[in-house]
Fold this sequence. Notes:
By secondary structure, the protein is of the alpha+beta class. It is built from two helices and eight strands; from the N terminus they run H-E-E-E-H-E-E-E-E-E. Strands 1-2-3-4-5-6-7-8 form an eight-stranded antiparallel beta barrel.
Amino acid sequence: xxxSLWIVTATVAAALSLGACSSARFGGAxxxxxxxxxxxxxxxxxxxxxxxxxxxxxxxxxxxxxxxAGAPMSGMPGAAAPGTEVAGLPPAAAPAPAxxxxxxxxxxxxxxxxxxxxxxxxxxxxxxxxxxDLYRASATGCPSQDLSRIYAWDYRDGEVYLYQTGGAVAAxxxxxxxxxxxxxxxxxxxxxxxx
Length: 195
């Protein structure tokens, strides 16, 4: 019986020692005691980074830029100046002038206007004084009753909205800071404003 106890003890001791060794040997984490681990590991410093940008790669040395839609881009290396001919390609065209953009803000619309409607003209004033979530407006001497009752205005999505007392839209107009045109909301009659 003593020998079988000794065999069991030796087997258990061997199994424990092999188990402890095998965890580190076969890729497992070695077993550490709590005393061996540091209480507060040192902080890890962040890697500094800068802004991320992208740009087209420069052409290979000695290689011209490939043509875009059959013609080289003006202003780029290897491109022809506007009006000059490159062998086998049509002359490069000068860029077209940009279209006149709509006014960027309502401040360009503030001021005195002359409104022209069927039956005559009158004076309209668009102010920068707030009136709830709109701005104050007034009209004097207008032949159109819809236009004579305006009290507020707003500028949204490139359009000037004129409002009557009660909140109904009197007119919607589009244009530039010097000239607007549109229609009266109820009748559909044309209206224009000019400085």
